Amino acid sequence: MAVEEEGLRVFQSVKIKIGEAKNLPTYPGPNKMRDCYCTVNLDREEVFRTKIVEKSLCPFYGEDFYCEIPRSFRHLSFYIFDRDVFRRDSIIGKVAIQKEDLPKYHNRDTWFQLQHVDADSEVQGKVHLELRLSEVITDTGVVCHKLATRILECQGLPIVNGQCDPYATVTLAGPYRSEAKKTKVKKKTNNPQFDEVFYFEVTRPCSYSRKSHFDFEEEDVDKLEIRVDLWNASNLKFGDEFLGELRVPLNVLRQSSSYEAWYFLQPRDNGSKSLKPGDLGSLRLNVVYTEDHVFSSDYYSPLRDLLLRSADVEPVSASAAHVLGEVCREKQEAAIPLVRFFLHYGRVVPFISAIANAEVQRTQDPNTIFRGNSLTSKCIDETMKLAGMHYLHVTLKPTIEEICQSHKSCEIDPVKLKDGENLENNMENLRQYVDRIFNVIIKSGVSCPTVMCDIFFSLREAAAKRFQDDLDVRYTAVSSFIFLRFFAPAILSPNLFQLTPHHTDPQTSRTLTLISKTIQTLGSLSKSKSASFKESYMAAFYEFFNEQKYADAVKNFLDLISSSGRRDPKSIEQPILLKEGFMIKRAQGRKRFGMKNFKKRWFRLTNHEFTYQKSKGDQPLYSIPIENILAVERLEEESFKMKNMFQVIQPERALYIQANNCVEAKAWIDILTKVSQCNKKRLTVYHPSAYLNGHWLCCRASSDTAPGCSPCTGGLPANIQLDIDGDRETERIYSLFNSYMSKLEKMQEACGSRSVYDGPEQEEYSTFIIDDPQETYKTLKQVVAGVGALEQEHAQYKRDKFKKTKYGSQEHPIGDKSFQSYIRQQSETSTHSI
Questions:
Q1: Same domain, 814 and 791
Q2: What is the pLDDT of residue 588?
Q3: Rounded alpha-carbon distances, angstroms, from residue 160 to 50, 85, 164, 188, 583
Q4: CATH number, domain with residue 541
Q5: Which of 190, 348, 478, 535 has the fewest CB atoms found within 10 Å of its own CB?
Q6: pLDDT mean values, one per 10 residues, the chain (834 residues)
Q7: Is residue 106 domain-shared with residue 139, that is, in the same domain?
Q8: In a shared domain, residues 492 and 619
Q9: Which domain holds residue 785?
């Protein structure tokens, strides 16, 4: 979800690898071990949770998490919890990274010390405050000054223990006084509208005679401050929870008698000494935070056109896309945006065919074809991940789930056998699993996505033409991807391919490792298969599969997925599970009041229907055919005083649903919108609020069939797998070129060197693949010009924004450290320019 900023869209995303924790404090009981899990939070909102690692003080998680961030945030936080069966889980410690500090740790494995969690430091949200100082004439004609403090509203307060009933206290504090007042409690909202005014007398009249109450007659206004504390009203015996505070010195009224601004809530300094951070252990993380600032499409025309010509450039090594792969530090870095870009514009097959053919021509040994981490192999890997994910799920997920649930022992290494285990039984269990997975793979050829088949066809043709004497190369060229880089890794690490929610337990992980090794060898079609295993027990086990029928089945499968005239039978489309999970839904019956109408249900979405049931595996309680979904939109919080709600609009009524967090809500809205995008009766307008008490809360229309009052959000592509924003990918490619500008210049020097000097090459230029120096130089010149033009547009946008933006506005409240840093950078840039 992009944030619109005056013709520019801002996308935020984060990719996190949660590695392991070490040296956690021991449990005070006799066992001393802990059952720990880790959560990922945007400020205080949990968006991801790892599995629980039991009985460990150094738990290994090894879990990856990616999400698009749909809102602004100040901290990316990680909390380590200790599970407690009888009480609420306790927090051991946290890592909180400020948004502006995320670039420091970009894509680096970093150990972070866990910090103590203090309730007074856990703050989130912002406050709109207005101050006004005015003169008041008393009945006796004496002039005194009154301070009017107006609390207008708050936004983004945290939800504590499932609820938020906020109120504010307003205190005028100084060296000799402290006067506090309190707002009303606002029930069930984390965006309260207070709009309350409090009056304080800040200047005493000189004629005031009761001096015993005051140390001096005229108070020094500069020494006074207004403090606003936000609290969550709690019915618990522990008292109200602190949500944050702000302090405003009254000297802000020196220039004007009125002052109005937004403030970020800040933690309270309670003066307590924190313990040494080393006492709590540490957590290993790898965080990649990306923020894309995307202009309208016409800004990218020169660079986009240059990239789209890449497949037709001769030689392809002189193309803009290939140049990006040459200058990036890692090929994967270039492959991700390139593949998404070419998929969006329907040019991925010609581009990959061109770079694959060039790589085949450079390959001398057919046994090493496509075995390196080249731009070709990384681009094909990325294409398979994007286009083949649903194919992978349909093929493998049922069997993988059964293996995870059955926990059959499959250990065949005699050294690792546990007491009571039988080697022959284990080998039979493993053989049955391998057979099942092998069979579902070779029978899945007809379901392989067309774009993958077209790429495999080009690989097969290029390899067969280059190595005409090797009859098997047309198979190994394809199997090196579909088996070695697609099916085998998914079996080995199913959580990385969303086949399982978390890492599997050690026993299941070992079983999947053995299956993956066997499937990889079956698919490789190597001539000496038993010799391909380092372990003697694997070679012995493989004898079960050392039959010609397995090799024939693999070849038939590879023939099918790499044939150009392949047809997909679509007469019976199998249901594809797209997403599932627990959410809270509002009853659709006649009852319209009370929390009893909200119930937790297991939701399940396929390409055929959207259903919910009491628990996973139960019979559906309600089903919505996909063709009956007329729109999927967010529901305003005012409807039920609940966050993260959305509505699935049907012909008769709307189904109101609450997701667990903002990331989950966005994911459900996106996938439901995509799968129903082609419905003929989709709505163009909708009601952003609910129909309650005989009228729509948004437009006050009384009829429940009244047409909507707001336009539906923009349509999305109907293709579920390839929902890609072309301009965003072009912006990412520009960012990569811009960050590697020094390497582009080095490559230009290398082209010049090769054009005029035919002797031994300088070492610094030898890493570049340059087949035609003149063509490559021409492309490099165009790339540098296109990147330079976009850089100027970004710089101009920043200058314009710097002039227009007000510190203390709703978009950039006082206390916004990222904006303060931005102001410093712009000031330095302006000074340097002058």
A1: yes
A2: 62
A3: 21, 21, 6, 11, 19
A4: 1.10.506.10
A5: 535
A6: 70 94 88 91 90 92 90 91 84 91 92 86 88 80 82 88 86 86 90 92 56 43 86 77 90 84 84 56 94 92 95 93 93 94 92 93 84 90 91 92 91 88 91 94 87 92 89 89 94 91 88 93 71 77 86 90 55 64 79 64 90 92 92 89 90 91 89 80 90 88 89 56 79 94 91 66 70 91 94 89 82 77 59 39
A7: no
A8: no
A9: 742-759+767-831
In a domain, 362, yes or no: no
pLDDT computed for residue 6 by the predictor: 65
Helix (H, G, I), strand (E, B) or coil at 39: strand
Is 504:495 a contact under the CB 8 Å cutoff? Answer: yes
What phi and psi, each to the nearest 5 degrees, are found at residue 736? Answer: -65, -50
pLDDT at 674: 77
Q: Specify the 3-state DSSP secondary structure of 34.
A: coil
Is residue 592 domain-shared with residue 550, that is, in the same domain?
A: no
* Structure-block tokens of residue 2: 């992009």
Contact of 211 with 168, CB cutoff 8 Å: no
**Distance separating alpha carbons of residues 589 and 584, to the nearest angstrom:** 15
- Which helix (H) or strand (E) is 135 found in, with range? strand 126-137
Cβ-contact 646, 665 below 8 angstroms = yes
**pLDDT value at position 821?**
65
Cα distance between residue 659 and residue 676, in whole Å: 19
- Name beta bridge partners: 328: none
Q: Check whether residue 101 and residue 151 sit in a common domain.
A: no
Sign of the dihedral through C-alpha 188, 189, 195, 200: positive
Report the pLDDT value the prediction gives residue 43, as an integer from 0 to 100: 87
- What is the domain-level CATH number for residue 616? 2.30.29.30
DSSP 174-217: ETTEEEEEE-PPPPS-SS-EEEEEEEEEEE--TT---GGG-S-S
In a domain, 729, yes or no: no
CA distance 714 to 711: 9
Instruction: For residue 474, report the phi and psi dihedrals to the nearest 5 degrees.
Output: -70, -20
Task: Name which of 159, 176, 204 is nearest 660 in CA terms.
Answer: 159
Q: For residue range 211-237, list pLDDT tens digits in order.
A: 433 333 445 667 788 999 999 987 665
Do 529 and 616 have their domain in common? no
- Other CB atoms within 10 Å distance of the CB of residue 105: 17
User: Strand pairing partners for 695?
Assistant: 692
Residue 229 region by backbone torsions, left for phi larger than 0, else alpha for psi between -120 and 50, else beta = beta
Domains contained in the chain, number:
5
Tell me the helix, strand and coil percentages in the chain, rounded to 5: 40, 25, 35
Indicate the pTM of the whole model. 0.78
pLDDT at 589: 58
Q: Kindly report, residue by residue over 659-675, the tens digit of the pLDDT.
A: 999 899 988 998 888 78
Q: What is the DSSP letter of 661?
A: S
Distance CA(491)–CA(503), nearest Å, equals 12
pLDDT of residue 167: 94
On whether residue 534 sits in a domain, the answer given is yes
Q: Which pLDDT score, from 0 to 100, does residue 824 have?
A: 64
Please tell me whether residues 671 and 704 are part of one structural domain. Answer: yes
Gap between the Cα atoms of 556 and 529, Å rounded = 19
Q: Say what the pLDDT of residue 273 is.
A: 47
For residue 153, tell me if it sits in a domain: yes
Closest CA to 493 of 60, 47, 64: 64
553 shares its domain with 585: no
3-state secondary structure labels for all residues of 331-400: HHHHHHHHHHHHHHCCCHHHHHHHHHHHHHHHCCCHHHCCCCCCHHHHHHHHHHHHHCHHHHHHHHHHHH
Shortest CA distance to 819 belongs to which of 160, 261, 441?
Answer: 261
